[in-house]
Structure formats: C-alpha cells, structure tokens
Amino acid sequence: MTMPKNIALIGYMGVGKTTVGRALSHELHYGFYDTDAIIAQSTGKTIEKIFEEDGEPAFREMETQTLKDVLNASHPAGCVIACGGGLPLSEENRQLLKDNCFTVELICADDILADRIEKDGADIRPLLADAPSHDDLVKKIGEMKAKRKAYYDAASDIKTETDVLSLEDVLDSIALFAEMWQDRQERIAQL
C-alpha cells in the first residue's frame, strides 16, 4: 500500500494541527505546510492583525488562495497541510480538500482546548479574545465547535482524538487509515 500524496489536518483551534502535522510530515518524509503560518509570513502580519486591519472575510480569502497554492506546488514525496481552524467553513475549501487530500479532523474536549488556548495566549486567537474567564472560554469554544461541526464533518475522511491518544498513537492511526484510504482510491480508479 502507498500513502496519499496530500494529508490535510483540520479541526478547531488548539487541537494540535501544527504539532501533529510537523511530526507526521517528519515520519512520512513529506513537506509540511501550515496555512496560518504561511499567511502570517506572506503578509508580514499576525493573524490577529489581519482580522483587526483587514477583517475576517479578507483572511478567509487568503486561506483559500494559500490552500490552492500549496496544492498546486510540486511536492515530490507529498505534503501534510495543517489548516487554519476556519478553513473548512468555505464550500470551495471543503471541495479542494475532498478532491486533493486525505483529510483528518483532530478533535479534543472543550476544557482541554481552553487550557491549551490560555497557555498559548489569547492574542493569537482573535475569535476568542472576548471570553473574560476560563468558564466563558470553554462555553464559547463549545458554541463555535457546534456551529462548525457540519463543515468539519463534510470535509473530513476520519477523526482522531488529540486529548486521549498520545502523539505516537495519533500518528499511527492517521498513517493506518491514510494507507487504507489510498488503497481504496486506487481500487476505485481501476474499476
């Protein structure tokens, strides 16, 4: 069996897309691309500044263009893409993921996400900046995740938990299901 050329990681902010993506790309000898980091580097602004100065719609357009650029680049071995938390909200992005990637949704409990986000600092999470307390943050995370659930479900091929499984187990589960998915894609293409 072989691996898919592109593996995309989606999920709510703080689930570990960048951490898992870096480790997975290292294990597979794939290129690693983080859409938020690419946008921040290309604009010379933090995500918070982009939201503040240009607005969320402009940022969402940048996400789509960044995803297209990564998918159109030449990746000899393949690539792992850590997608920004809101990237799957766009129908165009969901279709790009479905057409070009094996897509894994990373999931995590709301209270653990709140702990991770507070540790990272609220300044890098503009959509959560107005949550004044830990309990408010947990509640807001739950509400946002509920609104995004259908979009994540539509974009993902599998889900894996980053709060219950070790990083090694997360990587093993992604690799196992990615191989099975690729094998199925190849069998379908031969029909």
UniProtKB/TrEMBL annotation:
GO molecular function, one term: shikimate kinase activity
Positions with a binding annotation for Mg(2+): T18
Lineage: Bacteria, Bacillati, Bacillota, Clostridia, Eubacteriales
One annotated Gene Ontology cellular component of this protein: cytosol
Chain positions recorded as ATP binding sites: G14, V15, G16, K17, T18, T19, R125
Name of the protein in its database record: Shikimate kinase
Location (main, coarse): cytoplasm
Key word ATP-binding present: yes
UniProt keyword annotations, A-Z: Amino-acid biosynthesis, Aromatic amino acid biosynthesis, ATP-binding, Cytoplasm, Kinase, Magnesium, Metal-binding, Nucleotide-binding, Transferase
Cofactor (UniProt): Mg(2+)
Complex and partners: Monomer.
Free-text function comment from the UniProt entry: Catalyzes the specific phosphorylation of the 3-hydroxyl group of shikimic acid using ATP as a cosubstrate.
